[in-house]
Design the sequence.
């Protein structure tokens, strides 16, 4: 967000609601951080003044607690269990319907849900990196997913630089944060008295212009840059390399898989909170009158039985093979598919694992000995 | 069964009650408008709670609620099996023995003597057992109680002539699709969701509380790992035993988890 420092503006703290109000005036439903069941989730804001201040999220393996930020910042909460994924890749939706016509034939029709224009305020660099990976999957040449595309196109993304990473964060080691570098409409870096604000798209530029901001000073930009560097330096977790393809694929029979399988619940929470996981299942839901049926898509997970089910047998009958599938796809075979790792270092799979399995720790154990 | 338009007659359906609270039958009665649609497609020959009384006629599909808990139950389930093409056990009592299965590991005679002024009037078997312990069951719908949408999906599948779809995935899968933050992680409370079958739509977590396992064990339920996490969250072994020993205490996976906790053989 510091690529063109001469074009960055400065948004005083008191004017943050004006930014939200501007987006609302443009017809966007604005989603921002809201506390629900003890966690920060992205929900619709009712008014421009609804953004909470002073929230912080203490995170550790299997642990997430909201605490308060002594500096009363708007975006000191690192991240919550979800950010963009459920808004673009819907957890459950109908893809098409079929109905029996008078002649007894079947008529198929696409189900295209109404899409609201949505702005998300407070997405992180890791979320943007993950979104780029979801785009690579759902918008790939020749296999463009119309449902995803429709929701994706109308999104307006207000990113924020992470000044306070959680103990579970490791985006610096994956190269995806903590300062947003691409994929946003607007990016903010929160300082004591306001935000350095940079546009990343034409519509972001238009919103910024409408706010009539003073240019950010060189000192403000430098403070924001340093804040990003400190946040990166404060991260305590990391992956040993950005390409673990061979080091993991050479360890498919490592005893550590048995060890992690003994601890893993195979609940699939890691895959649900992972912002890059895209697996889904499809099923038909016939209406009770027998005249119509809907074809539905739901989030799936490599930790459930059906994911490994082939005709007559299951290729991943136990937790060991399911965990191994998850980790080796995410960090190893993803390179073959998308040219990079599927992990953006958000740490959600660590915090939101009910038994606190730490991906960075598992990788360290699996790759410690080098090639067998 | 054929498609509805070609069906020579409406399939005959019976709903039977064994040792139970009637809550699963209510899943039928609470279907509202869907019940009227359903009534047009099936011939409900026996459903005491709703009116029709004819337990002896042969049927295409028999839904059986409740566990086998008395001598009379033992005889009746044989009769029903012999007169039904498809038999579907519904609810925790019919699939695992239910809450009353708690007596299986206690001295039932002693309990009866303590509670009833005329214990000789109570004629129950020593153990409460699921329907599948006695006759062949074609499909099981777990839950306490089962949900209306689950029941509808089963009936609909049978009407369409396909096997009902089993969902033995964990409650967590439904919980995360609904976007509920995990209560174990955000509030440190002991949730049974990671070892429990889906089907309820993550009802308890939707209200900010922990799942108590009323849908029975999910496939690949790692009860050892969950018990270890319960201990980390501060549950005593006795409290952890109670998490596994409630609605579905006799489901083999939950029973084994509780036995292991009792003997202290967890790491």
Sequence:
């Amino acid at each position: 967000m510091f690529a063109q420092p001469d074009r960055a503006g400065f948004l005083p703290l008191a004017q943050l609601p004006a930014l939200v109000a501007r987006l609302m005036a443009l017809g966007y439903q604005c989603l921002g951080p809201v506390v629900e069941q003890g966690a920060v989730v992205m929900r619709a804001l009712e008014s421009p003044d609804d953004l909470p201040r002073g929230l912080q999220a203490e995170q550790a393996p299997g642990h997430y607690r909201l605490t308060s930020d002594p500096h009363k910042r708007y975006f000191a909460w690192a991240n919550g269990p979800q950010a963009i994924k459920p808004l673009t890749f819907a957890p459950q939706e109908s893809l098409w319907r079929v109905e029996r016509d008078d002649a007894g034939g079947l008529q198929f029709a696409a189900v295209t849900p109404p899409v609201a224009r949505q702005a998300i305020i407070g997405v992180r660099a890791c979320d943007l990196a993950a979104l780029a990976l979801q785009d690579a999957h759902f918008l790939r040449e020749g296999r463009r997913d119309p449902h995803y595309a429709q929701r994706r196109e109308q999104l307006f993304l207000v990113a924020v630089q992470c000044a306070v990473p959680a103990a579970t964060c490791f985006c610096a080691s994956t190269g995806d944060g903590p300062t947003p570098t691409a994929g946003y409409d607007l990016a903010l870096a929160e300082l004591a008295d306001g935000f350095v604000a940079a546009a990343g798209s034409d519509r972001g530029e238009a919103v910024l212009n409408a706010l009539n901001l003073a240019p950010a000073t060189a000192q403000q930009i430098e403070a924001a840059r340093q804040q990003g560097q400190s946040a990166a330096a404060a991260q305590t977790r990391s992956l040993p390399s950005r390409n673990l393809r061979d080091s993991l694929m050479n360890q498919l029979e490592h005893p550590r898989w048995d060890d992690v399988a003994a601890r893993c619940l195979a609940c699939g929470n890691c895959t649900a909170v992972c912002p890059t996981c895209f697996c889904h299942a499809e099923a038909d839901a016939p209406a009770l009158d027998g005249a119509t049926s809907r074809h539905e898509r739901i989030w799936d997970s490599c930790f459930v039985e059906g994911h490994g089910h082939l005709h007559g047998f299951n290729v991943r009958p136990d937790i060991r093979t399911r965990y191994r599938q998850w980790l080796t796809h995410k960090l190893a075979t993803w390179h073959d598919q998308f040219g990079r790792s599927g992990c953006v270092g958000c740490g959600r799979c660590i915090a939101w694992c009910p038994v606190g399995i730490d991906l960075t720790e598992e990788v360290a154990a699996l790759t410690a000995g080098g090639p067998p | 069964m054929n498609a509805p338009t070609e069906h020579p007659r409406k399939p005959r359906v019976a709903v039977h009650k064994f040792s139970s609270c009637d809550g699963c039958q209510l899943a039928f009665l609470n279907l509202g408008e869907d019940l009227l649609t359903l009534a047009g497609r099936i011939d409900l020959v026996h459903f005491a709670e709703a009116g029709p009384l004819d337990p002896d006629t042969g049927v295409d599909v028999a839904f059986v609620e409740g566990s086998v808990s008395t001598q009379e139950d033992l005889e009746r389930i044989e009769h029903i099996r012999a007169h039904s093409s498809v038999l579907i056990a519904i609810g925790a009592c019919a699939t695992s023995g239910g809450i009353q299965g708690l007596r299986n590991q206690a001295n039932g005679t002693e309990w009866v003597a303590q509670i009833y002024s005329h214990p000789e009037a109570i004629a129950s078997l020593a153990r409460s057992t699921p329907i599948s312990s006695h006759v062949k069951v074609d499909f099981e719908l777990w839950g306490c109680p089962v949900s209306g949408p689950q029941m509808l999906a089963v009936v609909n599948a049978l009407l369409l002539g396909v096997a009902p779809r089993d969902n033995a995935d964990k409650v967590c899968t439904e919980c995360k699709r609904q976007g509920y933050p995990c209560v174990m992680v955000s509030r440190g409370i002991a949730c049974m969701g990671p070892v429990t079958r889906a089907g309820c739509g993550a009802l308890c977590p939707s209200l900010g509380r922990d799942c108590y396992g009323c849908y029975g064990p999910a496939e690949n339920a790692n009860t050892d790992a969950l018990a270890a996490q319960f201990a980390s969250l501060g549950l005593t072994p006795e409290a952890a035993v109670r998490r596994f020993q409630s609605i579905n205490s006799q489901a083999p996976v939950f029973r084994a988890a509780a036995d292991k906790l009792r003997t202290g053989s967890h790491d």
User: Anything to note?
Assistant: The radius of gyration of chain A is 22 Å. Residues 245-281+300-367 of chain A form one domain. Chain A touches chain B through 47 residues (CB under 8 Å).
